[in-house]
Amino acid sequence: MRIAIVGAGANGASIGADLTAAGLDVTLIEQWPAHVEAMREHGAIIRMPDRTLEQPVRVLHLCEVATLREPFDVVLLLVKAYDSRWAAQLIEPLLAPDGLIVGVQNGMTVDAITDVVGAHRTMGCVIEISSMMFEPGVIERHSGPGRSWFAVGSTDPSTAGREEEIAALLRHAGTVEVVRDIRAAKWMKLVSNATTLVTTAILGLPMLEAVALPGMRDLMIRSGEEALEAGKLQGFPVLPIFGLTSAEVDRPDGVVELLLDTLLDGFVLTGTKTTILQDWVKGRRSEVDDINGRVVRVRAEHGLSSPVNSAVVELAHRIEAGELSPSPENLSALLELAARR
């Protein structure tokens, strides 16, 4: 089986190193030139709490995709949600006729991928790995394979029964569950992301520091509750993720808080900064419109406001416009905006 990982950032390189270490045929494809050259020189260096993996990997610059000729059987897509469509278009000519692209990403990216390669070549996935990267070729992975989690699911009858093909690969990188309703599972991850990713990034703090500030935890939970309700408006059931059970999410009024505590207790460390904050530190735009912005749009379609998520989106856009910097001083503005909408 020939496997490509398109998007070899912190999570993509971590998974690529795990699969390569397991003896699989893996090609990493990445758009950050310095990161590609660093991995070519000394492999992918994955620093975990209990060990460091220095794994030689095969890695290509994005522009080198045009030189490839042999098709891939599986493509794991680990680019930002907003890059999903063009990344799928880039690799589609190299996807085998019966191959699969798997969006191992945040956000509801399944349909964008399906539009490009067809439902018969698309598989859905939920990912939970805590990792950071600020130096080319060096990843700080805060949740190693023993503490990482994935869900895999078919999006169409044409791929039903093929879930285990992907689950077997990802088990080299973490615990994997096969789920029946992958779109609902991905929305549950979006609920968790709406609770934590942008909210804490606005304060410029690691998650555990941000949630401890007065008023912050309540605001985060309210953001997640808006997202949970938006999922119900779309007909998505409340499903367990992160290894939880159906019984544990059976009380709707406590689901968001349970997801928050499960994430903070089991997947992040003291210094873990969200992917959103990492993007801003690097001068990149974030996935806020694919997460909190998606919540705002869905609720608006049903005539509902989104006080907290709208406030989060507004401040995030101001940060990306250069009007604000991520800082704990933004908490008062965030609370004020969320209260008056």
Protein topology:
Blueprint: E1 2-6, H1 10-21, E2 25-30, H2 33-42, E3 44-47, E4 52-55, E5 58-61, E6 72-77, H3 84-91, E7 95-104, H4 110-117, E8 122-128, E9 131-135, E10 138-141, E11 149-154, H5 163-170, E12 175-178, H6 182-202, H7 207-211, H8 216-233, H9 255-266, H10 275-281, H11 292-301, H12 307-320, H13 330-340
Parallel strand pairs: 1-2, 1-6, 2-5, 3-10, 6-7, 7-8, 11-12
Antiparallel strand pairs: 3-4, 8-11, 9-10
Helix pairs in contact: 3-4, 6-8, 6-9, 6-10, 6-12, 8-9, 8-11, 11-12, 12-13
Global structural class: alpha/beta
- Please bin the fraction of helical residues: 40-55%
Q: Main sheet: which strands, in order across?
A: 5-2-1-6-7-8-11-12
The total strand number stands at 12
What percentage of the residues does DSSP assign to strands (E)? Answer: 15-25%
Order of helices and strands: EHEHEEEEHEHEEEEHEHHHHHHHH
Average the pLDDT over all residues and give the rounded result.
Answer: 97
Distance between the termini: 52 Å
Biggest beta sheet summary: 8 strands, mixed
- Poorly predicted sequence stretches spanning 5 or more consecutive residues: none
Rg over CA atoms, rounded to whole Å, is 19 Å
Q: Per the principal axes of the C-alpha atoms, what is the gross shape?
A: globular
- The number of helical elements comes to 13
